[in-house]
Amino acid sequence: MAVPGAALMLLIVGGFAWVLFLRGDGKPDNGGEFEGEPLESAVTVLEPPAEGAVDSVNGLPLRAGVRLDHPGGASAQIPGGAALYGDVMDLRRVQLADDPWWDHGGFGWEFVSFVGVPIAEPSTVDLPAGGPGTSVIVRTVAGFWVELPSEPVTLKDGRPGERVTVSNVPAPWVFALAAPKAGAPALTGEEQDDLRIEQLYWTDRAAWEGEIDAWLETDPMARTFSEARYASQQPPADPWREYERVRAQMRFTLKMFGAARGGLDDPISLFGGASNPTGEELSPDELWAGGVERLFVVKQNWLAFRSTIDLQSVDANRQVAVYFVDEWIETAMHDYTPWGIDLVKALLDAEQLRDLDIRVLKPYGELKWADIVIKSEEMPADIESFVRDELAHGKYPIGGTPTVQRTLRFYSVRAMERLAIVDWLKQNVDWIVRWLPVALAATGLIPGAVGLSFAFAAADQILDWVNGWYTAGNEHPYAYMVMEGASAGGIGGTSFVLDMYEESVLMKEAGRGMLPAHGLTIAQFAYSVGMFAAIRGTDYYLFKSIREAAEGTRGYCAGRCDSISGGIPPVMLHVRGTGTLVQPEGAYPTGIERLMSFRLKTGDADFHGTWLSGGRSASQSTSGLPFEHYGSSNWPVGVAATQPQYQSIRVTIPKASIPPEVWGDRPRDAPLSEFGARLVLRGPNGEVATFSLTEDAKKIPGDKTENIYTNVLLIAPGERSLSAEQLAWFDDGLEPGADQQQTFQSNAALTLKLTGEVEFDDPRAEPLPVTVQLEKAPRRIALLDGDELMPGTSVARVHFGTAAATADIDGVYQIVSWQMTGGSAEIVRIYNEDRLYPFGRKCESGGTCTFEVQTTPAERE
Predict the structure, then answer these.
(1) Cα–Cα distances in Å, from 471 out to 458, 467, 477, 497, 530?
(2) Contacts of 29 (CB under 8 A, 6+ apart)
(3) For the segment 119-147, what is each residue's pLDDT rounded down to a tens digit?
(4) Taking the mean position of all CA atoms in its chain, how far away is CA 61?
(5) Torsion sign (Cα): 374, 378, 379, 380
(6) What is residue 391's three-state secondary structure?
(7) Going by C-beta distance under 8 Å and a sequence separation of 6 or more, which residues neighbour residue 610?
(8) pLDDT at position 294, please?
(9) Mutual angle of helices 205-216 and 239-259, in 10-degree steps
């Protein structure tokens, strides 16, 4: 946008009432400027979406269409659509600072949205009509007002009003009813044309894009700005010519920033690096980067110019003109480089911001944060060394080489504003777990590490073992992992078991299926969602302390600092390490995921207070930036423990293994309880569990009459014994005896390697060694009838196995070779003819015969 030059300086100023007219988005008229302030407008739901309905393109949940009614008479009708963060919207009456061109009476109307994606469909805003000669004006991204076309309406309270329509413009929208001021500074033709083009952005997007395309064809990136070459002690003869030069540079810079909106119309567009959704030579992020380059020079030139004048000695008109450009430049730095223009410029020079989603910047979108992935060599050396040591030797040591992801997170100015999403996150953790990771990863809505990281899901070592459990034909697709938020920053952690059967039902009901575009197996999907819940789901932990992270700082101001704290939006370094926990032999694999957070040191930086004196922000690439540990006592740890709650083992004991003198005159179907039998199970690290075998199992197909069968239940530490009623839900023949449940005596974890023996009270019966064979995949056992399957309460996670007790030589053997060392010629002849009639049967083939080996106690060695 153009800034009036000489005309502005010729304006007769009646005091300094409007010197700071570029004052952000206005102050709430109710005086409220605190976290969690109430909504000013009543919300009426007009178009509730179907339960669980999702956007057909990006899989995000749909919010309702609503009507907002302000007690002051204004209203807004907002259609339904996709929601990224939630559905909080409001229409407010705000105070406005004086403006040199428009008389708005000191107040206006602000629509705010914390949905996270711009409202794509047309929305209408009805405003109380002003006096004669007034029209609806809207504040542009450059801080200027432009007139909008409107139509007369009757408000809900019967008063006359004006209606404007808005489509696909990131909130906030600030409107006012105003009349042109008499004697306002004249605008040049270029300035008027800039305002006309900005008006098209609001009223005719296709026409606006045509204008921008035509401007881009002039190759604006080729135009560079030269820095001032003089020192303040040797000012030019006419320093006000430098004022005009800087003003022209600033106008061009803002036009470049504005042009970057051209690729952002689609709320799920994804761009970065060399991608270019608009088909133009320049992508939105390249235009933004070009704008930053030029804004940096504009700032330098302006500071050089300011050092050549004594502001107190010039006339009032020129003072106003200087103050205007002061705020003009600072507003641009607030909007386009809120983390410090020097830092952003340094990171751009190091080519580290290629993948930054610029929708984190207020003029471009409604994202609360954006992440970029950096390499290990781009890390500060001290932080990288600490991370590697912590992953290898910390409280949760990861074996082998962990997978490490390093991301630089930039929080937005929006993240620090009133009605931010902190409270919403706190109340909707379940929503985050089920929706946010899936949607973000499946659509690429936010690049980087915000949602699920599918690369991690595919690479995690634990999945090499788990993935084979889950196939398309699996009757019980149960994601057998317990996610534990070992430390989640004050919200009590996230601890749950993801039941993929239940999850698939919920997905089907929500119409979102398994989102096959993500390309994951069911196990990978389950693992990733679970880890997200334990780690990235605790973005609440990271987000809720954002103002604390910015405490003691002050950022750039758009006329006034209109965030709650006014602090500099934090820049955080997040390091995510994942791998398999170092464990004893035979342990169930346990996945570990760590999230370590580091804050860019800003001290008590005051961008607003120091920029005119040449104050600078950090200005190095990431490897040279000063980061400090942040919230380390609450760093989240995700533990994906695949250990089941129970191991159910079906034990087979041959009746022949019990000596006749022990068996006595009992019938052949005598119950096991009569023999004083015990099963002793041992783990590879000295774990022992002893079961008294008192209950025979029900027969199942394949059982033999010459064997005794029983089931035992080995219980994981901290789990409850199951009642007879609960055990009855096990499949017939697999239900353990109610009195045959034990934990390891040392309360040790369950193990994949078990050995042991069956012992008898009678010393004449020797112990029988057993070998335990666990099934490939644990199972999910529903302990309640119907579909109300609540993980951890009505579902038992059981790994089934078998244990066969073996006697020394009892059984059927195949003798595959022997020698005949004697016998009559007739016997040798019969043998060679594959006939062994003297032995009572024919051999299978020459030299291969099957014999029953009968034993008596006297023959056992």
Answers:
(1) 16, 8, 8, 19, 19
(2) 92, 93, 94, 95, 107
(3) 989 999 999 999 899 999 999 887 789 99
(4) 15
(5) negative
(6) helix
(7) none
(8) 95
(9) 120
Q: List 654's β-bridge partners, or say none.
A: 707
Concatenate the DSSP letters of all residues of 799-850 into one string. EEEEEEE--SS-SEEEE---------HHHHHHHHTTEEGGGTEE-SBTTBEE
Tokens in use for 5? 């030059």
Give the bridge partners for 103, in sequence order: 179
Please, is 826 exposed, middle or buried when counting C-beta atoms within 10 Å of its C-beta (0-12, 13-18, 19+)?
exposed
Contact present, 688 and 681 (Cβ < 8 Å): yes
Contact 4, 186 (CB under 8 A): yes
Give the separation between CA 18 and CA 11, rounded to whole angstroms.
Answer: 12
Q: Which among 476, 582, 595, 587 is positioned nearest to 526, based on CA atoms?
A: 476
Q: Which residue has the higher pLDDT, 153 or 357?
A: 153
What confidence score (pLDDT) does residue 574 get? 85
435 DSSP 8-state letter: T
**358 near 385, Cβ under 8 Å?**
no
DSSP code of residue 61: B
- Strand, helix or coil for residue 493: coil
User: Distance between CA atoms of 108 and 117, rounded to whole angstroms?
Assistant: 24
3-state secondary structure 281-310: CCCHHHHHHHHHHHHHHHHHHHHHHHCCCC
Question: Which pLDDT score is estimated for 752?
Answer: 92
Pairing of strands 741-742, 707-715: parallel
Q: Where are the alpha helices (DSSP H) in 695-740?
A: 724-727
What's the confidence (pLDDT) of residue 177? Answer: 96
* 3 state DSSP class of 661: helix
Q: Which two tokens stand for residue 516?
A: 């096959």
Q: What is the pLDDT of residues 564-602, one digit of tens each?
A: 457 888 898 988 888 888 998 998 887 777 878 898 998
Backbone angles phi, psi at 428, to 5 degrees: -130, 40
Reported as a single tens digit per residue, the pLDDT across 212-263 is 989 988 888 888 887 765 444 455 567 888 888 998 899 899 999 999 998 7
Minimum mean pLDDT range among 549-553, 666-670, 710-714: 549-553
Q: Residue 313 is which amino acid?
A: S
Question: CB under 8 Å to 352, separation ≥6 — which residues?
Answer: 372, 374, 378, 408, 621, 622
How many residues belong to the chain? 861
Mean pLDDT score across all residues of the chain:
74
Asked if residue 660 has a cis previous peptide bond (ω within 30° of 0), the answer is no
Angle 498-503-508 from CA coordinates, rounded to 5°: 170
> Rounded to whole angstroms, how far apart are CA atoms 660 and 477?
47
193 SS3 class: helix
Q: What is the CA radius of gyration of the chain?
A: 38
347 Cβ neighbours under 8 A, 6+ residues apart: 353, 621, 622
Angle of the 205-216 helix axis to the 189-203 helix axis, nearest 10: 130
3-state helix, strand, coil in the chain (%, to 5): 30, 25, 45
- CB neighbours of 721 closer than 8 A, spacing ≥ 6? 713, 715, 741
The pTM assigned to this predicted structure is 0.73
Residue by residue, what is the 3-state secondary structure of 807-818?
CCCCCEEEECCC
Handedness of CA 527, 529, 534, 535 (dihedral sign): positive
- The DSSP bridge partners found for residue 77 are 67, 124
pLDDT (tens digit, 9 = 90+) per residue, 708-767? 999 999 999 988 899 988 898 898 899 999 999 999 999 999 999 999 999 999 999 999
Residue 73 corresponds to which tokens in the numbers above? 């008479």
Question: Which distant-in-sequence residues (6+ apart) come within 8 Å of 786 by Cβ?
Answer: none
Handedness of CA 633, 638, 643, 645 (dihedral sign): positive
